[in-house]
Amino acid sequence: MHPLTVGDMMTTQVRTVCEDDPLNTADWDMVIGGFRHIPVVDREHHLVGIVSDRDVRDPVHANQSIAATMSREVHAVLPSTPAIDAIEYLLMAKQNALPVIDEQRKLIGIVTTTDFLELARRALVGLDVHKPHVRS
Q: Model confidence over 74-102: pLDDT tens digits?
């Protein structure tokens, strides 16, 4: 049995936005999709930042672009990252989401605290947590 990795549990169908999109685009996507974080990518789908629900709540930024409020210092992980390392980072950094990238920094997924709660639920009801359960 292999150690559980981020790739075993990440969400692969990720809503993204671009830096020059208006901030209200991210706000709308978060409300409709029930997201709290949306990765920001460039035209080649490379990760350049992340925007959170806290970023879009500030009315001062309402008419600005995503570039004006997004976090550019984004910690990201590879799909091969052990899940235990990812959750330890989230806890220590008090973050709720980690974008998942490939070696060229292209976005391929996201893992969130909700994914870890689902993992805990599976363990508590006796399901095999080592079987991949990638959400798309």
A: 999 999 999 999 999 999 999 999 999 99
The pTM score is 0.86
CATH number for the domain spanning 79: value is 3.10.580.10
Q: How many structural domains comprise the chain?
A: 1
For tokens 């989401």, name the residue. Answer: 97
Task: With respect to residue 130, please indicate whether it lies within any of the assigned structural domains.
Answer: no
User: How much is the mean pLDDT over the chain?
Assistant: 88
β-strand pairing of 37-41 with 47-52: antiparallel
Place of tokens 């008419």: 63
- C-alpha to C-alpha distance for 33 and 31, rounded to whole angstroms: 6
Secondary structure, 3-state, 60-94: HHCCCEHHHCCECCCCCECCCCEHHHHHHHHHHHC
d(CA 10, CA 13): 9
